[in-house]
Structures are given as C-alpha cells and as structure tokens.
C-alpha cells in the first residue's frame, strides 16, 4: 500500500493530470507484449523533465516505493510489469528528437521517441539508424537501449549498443549522471554507457541519449532461397559468408514455419522445401549485382531448390511476405502458444534445431523456428496445437537448457525481464552474479528500481 503522504507529494509535484492512483487508469499499465505476465501497479507518473524524474525517484527512495520505467511496453519478458507493485514511470512525454547533427553523424534524442520516428527523420536527410527490431512502429529508443534490442539488420550493422554513444541517466537515488560523449574515440574513464545499455530499467532511468547514425545505403537487393533441409541452408550460409559478402539481413524459417505460412497465405512453397532463407544486401548500387551473383552461386552449390530475386519494391514486399506472415499464420494451427528467444553460435543452429525436434517429440508438442539466422538468434514458437492440452511448461526450460549446452545464451534480444530470472545462473556464474549484485546495490541501495527483474533475489 502506498503511503498517503507519498501520494500527496507526487500529486503536488505533477498534478492529477500527470499522476494517478485510480485502478481504472492503472489496468493499462499492468502488462507488456508478453500478455501472460500481469501485475497491477499502485500508481502511474508521467514526468516531463529530468528534474521531475529526479524528484520522483528521490521520493520513491525515501518512501521505499518500487518504480518501473516504461517505454512502448512492447517487451516480451515482462520488463515493465510491476511485479512488486509500486508506481509505473511512463516515459511517453520524453518524446522529442532534440538534434540531428548531420556533420557528426549523430542524433540526440529523448527516450520516449518511437524508434520508427527516428528512423524516418534521419532517412529524410539520407541517413540511417540501423537497429531495426520488428517492433519499430511502437517500441521506443529508451526501451531499445534498456533491452539492447537487436532486429533484422544486426547481422551487418550490430545491435543497439553499437549505436549508443552517450547517455543521461537518473539514478534510483535521484542523482543525474552523464556517460560517454559525441566523440567516436573516447576512452575517458570507465565505459559506463554500456553498463546501462541492456540493464532493463534496473540501474537508472534513461532521460537522454546520444545516438550514432550512418549514411543510408544507396540500394537494397532482396532474395529468398529455399532448401530441402536446414542443414543445406546452413551450408549455404557458410558459403555466402565465405564469399566475403556480408548480408544486411539473413532471416530463416524452418520446415514447420514454411508449412504453416504456406497453409495460411499460399506463397508458393513446395512440399519438399524444408527451410527458407530471406537475404538482403545493401550498399552502392554498382556493387550489389556482384553480391547477388555471389549469393546465388553459394546457394546453388548447396542444393538450393528455388532462388528468387526482387526487381521492384512490390516484388521485395512479396518476398518478405512469408517472414512477416508467420506471427499471424500460427493462428491456423493453434489458439495459444509460447515463444522463446535464444542464441547459439551460428554454426550450431542445425544442432539446436535437432535438439528442438527432440524436445517437441518428448512433450508431443509442435515447435516451429524462425528468426535471425545471421546472428544465431532463434525465435522458438511452441504449441500443443488445437489439442486443447495445457502447454507443458517444462519444455520451455528444456529449450533454454539446449541453447546453453551448445554454448548459447538464454536470451538473445528480448532480455531476461521477470520471465527468465530463474534461468540466469545457467549463463552467469556465481562470482559474476556477485559483481552484478554489487553494481545494483551501489546504484540502487534500497532496491527500488524495477525490482524482480534480471537477477534472482539474494
Ligand atoms: C511484434 C514484436 C516484434 C518484436 N521484434 C523485436 C526484434 O526484432 N528485436 C528485438 O530486439 N526485440 C523485439 N521485440 C521486443 C521489444 O519490442 C523490444 O524489447 C523493445 O526494445 C522494447 O521497447 P519498448 O519501448 O516497448 O520498451 P518497454 O517494453 O516499455 O520496456 C522494456 C524494458 O526497458 C525498460 N525501460 C523502458 N524505458 C526506459 C527508460 N527510459 N529508462 C530505463 N529503462 C527503460 C523497462 O523498464 C523494461 O525493463 C518485439 C516485440 C514485439 C511485440
């Protein structure tokens, strides 16, 4: 229960239009895209300035009230779900792009800016913000930084951390710190920027970011290649990399995913097609014909069944259709499913898929796999189909354990949140966990910021 005095002080600070403790206002703040995880907050605040964020955190620290920062709430691991109650700090009002500095290839943005808005603004002047999570239309830069989000272009361009040059962060005690700078070369002090990137709102509230942007590539070419087996596709990926071409996107669908999408949208898959690669290259137009020829030759060496190239924007959209359709196509086979997000070294993807087949057989479930092949990042969809049987939750942990057994990671780009806390020690050993706990304690001595996330309780 929130202290009456605490509520009064919050209302005095923000007024009643930017704070609320009414249950009917709070329901909308009780979940994220992982709809299974829900918890009602006891209040919501919408600060507009760094001074307000600082004042709220000082108060919360004094009254020991949990605070959960919230961006677009598109996270998949319950990061914004207030599992220990307290208040939600919604960053909606921090929605300004403060500066786009073309000469220095950077932008200064507030955390509540929608990722796509930044991408569109820099695109207008021939620049690109490369991190491209499939949620760009509704996720925020602050959420992307806090999750170190990946996305569709990571294979060539890297992930969010590669584009964060500096941060302004309000610590749980209310103190404001600034990390990094506008300089590409900067070795002044510890690299604190990366401490906050991927910290899932547990170490500080990001209020401003210096973001690196790059020149927009002149052209993009899109292709799909299908294979009899995922092993053939894996050989093709090796052969593509061996040519020296670095695709900007290298996505895959496994056999079941291809079948599911074919059943839903009839995109022309043949029964013998057991794996699909969606490949894009970008760069100067003059270089791309050569890249496409190299990729086609590599795929042909590895038993490609069909190799399609887009010549127009409409054809490009057509080739993306199968990948984009998967998330709704699964409704054809099930009303309820579980997702996971793991990564393994890319050479181990076929082994991982075999392990997933074994898990599916053991639990009599359907497992379909897709995702970012070029980064070793598999999105694992699991369902009991239309059987009506409850999902065997043990299968989820077996998927994560299988990734760990192949030197993989329990989370690739969706974070730990509150759903994978119990798996953390599978990747993080005791001394490392102790170090993480010391950082947390130093920055957040009373443990008020986003409790119940990332690390298990001591
Ligand atoms: C359809 C769909 C597709 C997706 N595709 C991808 C994908 O391709 N790649 C990928 O990586 N992810 C993907 N995601 C997951 C999700 O979109 C990302 O994790 C995204 O970065 C979350 O951003 P958000 O603004 O919605 O953050 P939220 O969900 O609001 O918050 C996520 C975490 O960040 C913290 N946080 C938010 N703002 C701040 C702040 N200002 N300061 C400190 N902490 C903060 C929160 O406390 C929480 O722990 C997808 C999600 C959906 C629904």
Instruction: Return Rg in Å.
Output: 23 Å
**Mean pLDDT metric:** 95
Task: Please give the order of strands in the largest beta sheet.
Answer: 15-12-14-13-17-18-16
Class by alpha and beta content:
alpha+beta
User: Which ligands are bound?
Assistant: flavin-adenine dinucleotide
The number of helices is 14
| CATH architecture annotation name of the domain at 219-405 | 3-Layer(aba) Sandwich
Shape: globular
Low-confidence stretches: none
Characterize the largest beta sheet: strand count, sense, and whether it forms a barrel: 7 strands, antiparallel
Name of the CATH class of the domain at 219-405:
Alpha Beta
* Percent of sequence in beta strands: 15-25%
> What's the β-strand tally?
18
What is the CATH third-level topology name of the domain at 219-405? Answer: Vanillyl-alcohol Oxidase, Chain A, domain 3
The CA-CA distance between the termini, in Å, is 24 Å
**Helical amount:** 25-40%
The CATH superfamily of the domain at 219-405 is FAD-linked oxidase, cap domain/gating helix
Written account of the structure:
- The protein is of the alpha+beta class and 458 residues long.
- Helix content is 33%, strand content 21%.
- Among the domains are: 97-215, 2-Layer Sandwich (Uridine Diphospho-n-acetylenolpyruvylglucosamine Reductase, domain 3); 219-405, FAD-linked oxidase, cap domain/gating helix (Vanillyl-alcohol Oxidase, Chain A, domain 3, 3-Layer(aba) Sandwich).
- It contains 14 helices and 18 strands.
- The strands form four sheets. It has a seven-stranded antiparallel sheet, with helices on both faces. The protein has a five-stranded antiparallel sheet with strand order 5-6-10-8-9.
- Strand 8 and strand 9 form a beta hairpin.
- The two termini are 24 Å apart.
- It binds flavin-adenine dinucleotide.
- Flavin-adenine dinucleotide is lined by residues 32-33, 68-76, 79-80, 91, 111, 133-135, 139-140, 142-144, 146-147, 149-151, 200-201, 205-206, 413-414, 450.
């Amino acid at each position: 229960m929130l202290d009456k005095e605490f509520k009064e002080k919050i209302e005095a600070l923000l007024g009643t239009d930017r704070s609320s403790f009414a249950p009917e206002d709070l329901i909308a703040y009780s979940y994220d895209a992982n709809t299974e995880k829900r918890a009602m907050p006891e209040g919501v605040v919408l600060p507009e300035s760094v001074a307000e964020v600082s004042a709220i955190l000082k108060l919360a620290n004094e009254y020991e009230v949990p605070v959960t920062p919230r961006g677009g709430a598109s996270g998949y691991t319950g990061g914004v779900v207030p599992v220990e109650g307290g208040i939600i700090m919604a960053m909606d009002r921090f929605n300004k792009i403060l500066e786009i500095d073309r000469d220095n290839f950077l932008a200064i943005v507030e955390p509540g800016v929608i990722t796509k808005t930044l991408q569109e603004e820099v695109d207008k002047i021939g620049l690109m913000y490369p991190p491209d999570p499939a949620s760009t239309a509704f996720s925020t830069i602050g959420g992307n930084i806090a999750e170190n989000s990946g996305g569709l272009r990571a294979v060539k361009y890297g992930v969010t951390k590669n584009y964060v040059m500096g941060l302004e962060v309000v610590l749980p005690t209310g103190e404001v710190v600034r990390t990094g700078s506008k300089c590409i070369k900067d070795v002044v002090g510890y690299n604190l920027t990366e401490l906050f990137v991927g910290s899932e709102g547990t170490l500080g509230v990001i209020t401003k970011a210096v973001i690196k942007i790059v020149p927009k590539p002149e052209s993009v070419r899109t292709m799909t290649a299908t294979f009899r087996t995922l092993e053939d596709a894996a050989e093709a990926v090796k052969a593509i990399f061996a040519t020296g071409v670095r695709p900007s996107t290298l996505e895959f669908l496994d056999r079941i995913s291809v079948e599911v999408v074919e059943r839903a949208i009839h995109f022309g898959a043949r029964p013998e097609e057991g794996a699909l690669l969606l490949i894009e290259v970008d760069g100067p137009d003059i270089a791309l014909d050569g890249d496409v020829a190299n990729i086609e030759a590599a795929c042909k060496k590895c038993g490609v069944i069909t190799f399609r190239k887009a010549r127009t924007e409409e054809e490009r959209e057509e080739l993306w259709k199968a990948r984009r359709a998967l998330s709704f196509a699964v409704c054809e086979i099930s009303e309820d499913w579980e997702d996971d997000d793991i990564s393994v070294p890319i050479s181990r993807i076929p082994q991982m898929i075999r392990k997933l087949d074994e898990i599916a057989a053991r639990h009599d479930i359907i497992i379909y796999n897709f995702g970012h092949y070029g980064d070793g990042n598999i999105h694992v969809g699991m369902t009991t189909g239309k059987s009506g049987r409850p999902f065997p939750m043990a299968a989820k942990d077996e998927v994560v354990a299988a990734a760990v057994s192949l030197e993989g990671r329990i989370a690739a780009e969706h974070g730990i949140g509150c759903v994978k806390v119990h798996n953390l020690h599978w990747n993080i050993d005791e001394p490392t966990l102790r170090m993480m706990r010391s950082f947390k304690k130093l920055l957040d001595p009373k443990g008020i910021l986003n409790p119940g996330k990332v690390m298990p309780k001591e």
